[in-house]
């Protein structure tokens, strides 16, 4: 049994289903990306795993327990999110001391060195930080607690590109040093591509797909060419006109032999970035913006 | 180093990078191979992806495992890589070359002359 499992989970707010009949198990000791458009249910899913909210129906299991108000889950799972609260009269140094007391694997040196690297003074009060710095502080704490499971909800919100890159690098090095189960929700799949082992794509509260990043990259291919009956209409995920003669298609990977044949028929073949593929897959559920006009 | 616009999966690119290290004599027979964690750090990629690159070399018998010590370069690794590149990479390029030459009605003589010129480092002035 995996550390985190969900079975037929539904979460309803008033009349709105945020998560619908979701069944999945998170791979242990790996970095998993949680991807999907706004309102897909990413934060709700993380809240359920962290035990901040209760599922309306179904079972959420973390280390074999229902996470809601469970002490062992609280000690072994850390959740980094935008609304993290620290005691108002604490300086960052005191916040770190408090974490050190609660979390046995807390890496004080890492917390201090990362703070220094990101120009966050330990003398500052967390509430005085800018939005980007506050995200950075939360992210540092998420890396330093080194709990067996760490959840990050949009950890890079407000961070500069340079800070985001350094955070991804720090996360990777921290994971290499201490392999553990990490889930990251993000809008920026293109920046996370190399970091993730698994991808979960949510849409409308449902699981659109869950697969290894390497497989996701091979899931589809882009074709440029003239209209041709060689393309199996069933496998088209996206299409767009390039000019009068040429068209761009994204199709499910048809196998190497078929690709070779398409190439010989003059098609130009290109890889499809996972970030784009996720947009195409979720767009198929609602049509592109042109349909509005 | 890594090309994200390539059709080749990252783990295949890692495997090819390692093969090049062997081809270029930077790693010799019986030298210790990079670990998946070293590769993950070097290329800034998930260790699982790096691990798949190493597995590819294991499957091709280019490296061998010593229990508890890691993986090491096989005796015949370099020769095998050369053989494989000739059969796969070079042959594919030749097939494409011939296809393009046919499209352009380039004669055998001209094609060979162009190849000879290219090997000498000059350009064809037919």
Commentary on this structure:
Chain A: This is ABC-2 type transport system ATP-binding protein. Chain A contains 10 helices and 13 strands. Chain A folds into 2 domains: 4-204, Rossmann fold, CATH 3.40.50; 216-292. Chain A is of the alpha/beta class and 293 residues long. In chain A, the strands form 3 sheets. A 6-stranded mixed β-sheet of chain A has the order 5-6-7-3-8-9, with helices on both faces. A 4-stranded antiparallel β-sheet of chain A has the order 11-12-10-13, with helices on both faces. Chain B folds into 2 domains: 10-75, Winged helix-like DNA-binding domain superfamily/Winged helix DNA-binding domain (Arc Repressor Mutant, subunit A, Orthogonal Bundle); 78-120. The two termini of chain B are 36 Å apart. In chain B, helix 1 packs across helix 3 and helix 2 crosses helix 3 (47-59). Chain A binds chain B through residues 30-31, 168-169, 172-173, 175-176, 179, 193-197, 212-214, 217-218, 221, 264, 269-271, 273, and chain B through 2, 4-7, 9-11, 37, 40-41, 43-49, 52, 99.
What is the overall number of helices of chain A?
A: 10
* Helix/strand order of chain A: EEEHEHEHHHEHEHEEHEEEHEH
- Strand line-up in the sheet with most strands of chain A: 5-6-7-3-8-9
Q: Find the biggest chain interface.
A: A-B, 25 and 20 residues
Could you name the ranges of chain A where pLDDT drops below 50 across 5 or more consecutive residues?
none
Spatial strand arrangement across the major sheet of chain B: 1-2
Q: Assign the structural class of chain B, choosing from mainly alpha, mainly beta, alpha/beta, alpha+beta, or little secondary structure.
A: mainly alpha
Q: Give the termini separation of chain B.
A: 36 Å
Strand content of chain B: 5-15%
- Estimate the global geometry of chain B from the Cα principal axes: elongated
Spatial gap, N to C terminus of chain A: 49 Å
């Amino acid at each position: 049994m995996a550390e985190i499992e969900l079975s037929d989970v539904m979460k309803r707010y008033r009349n709105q289903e945020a998560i619908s009949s979701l069944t999945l198990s998170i791979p242990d000791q790996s970095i998993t990306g949680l991807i999907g458009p706004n309102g897909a249910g990413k934060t709700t899913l993380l809240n359920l795993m962290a035990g901040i909210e209760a599922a309306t129906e179904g079972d959420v299991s973390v280390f074999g327990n229902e996470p809601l108000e469970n002490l062992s889950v609280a000690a072994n799972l850390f959740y980094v999110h935008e609304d993290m609260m620290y005691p108002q009269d604490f300086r960052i140094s005191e916040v770190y001391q408090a974490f050190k007391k609660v979390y046995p694997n807390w890496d004080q040196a890492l917390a201090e060195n990362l703070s220094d690297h990101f120009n966050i003074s330990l003398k500052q009060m967390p509430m005085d930080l800018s939005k980007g710095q506050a995200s950075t502080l939360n992210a540092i704490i998420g890396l330093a607690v080194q709990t067996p499971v760490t959840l990050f909800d949009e950890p890079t919100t407000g961070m500069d590109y340079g800070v985001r890159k350094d955070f991804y690098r720090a996360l990777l090095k921290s994971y290499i040093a201490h392999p553990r189960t990490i889930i990251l929700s993000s809008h920026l799949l293109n920046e996370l591509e190399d970091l993730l082992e698994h991808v979960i794509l949510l849409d409308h509260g449902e699981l659109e797909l869950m697969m290894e990043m390497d497989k996701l990259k091979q899931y589809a291919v882009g074709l440029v060419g003239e209209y041709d009956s060689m393309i199996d209409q069933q496998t088209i995920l996206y299409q767009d006109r390039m000019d009068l003669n040429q068209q761009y298609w994204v199709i499910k990977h048809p196998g190497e032999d078929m690709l070779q044949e398409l190439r010989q028929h003059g098609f130009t073949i290109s890889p499809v970035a996972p970030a784009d593929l996720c947009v195409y897959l979720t767009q198929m559920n609602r049509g592109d913006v042109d349909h509005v006009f | 180093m890594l090309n994200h616009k390539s059709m080749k999966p990252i783990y295949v690119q890692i495997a090819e990078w390692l093969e090049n290290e062997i081809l270029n004599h930077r790693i010799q027979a019986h030298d210790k191979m990079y670990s998946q964690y070293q590769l993950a750090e070097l290329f800034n990629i998930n260790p699982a992806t790096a691990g798949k690159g190493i597995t590819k070399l294991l499957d091709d018998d280019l490296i061998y495992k010593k229990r508890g010590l890691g993986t090491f370069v096989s005796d015949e690794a370099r020769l095998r890589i050369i053989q494989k590149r000739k059969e796969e990479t070079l042959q594919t390029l030749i097939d494409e070359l011939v296809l393009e030459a046919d499209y352009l009605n380039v004669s055998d003589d001209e094609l060979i002359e162009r190849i000879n010129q290219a090997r000498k480092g000059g350009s064809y002035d037919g």
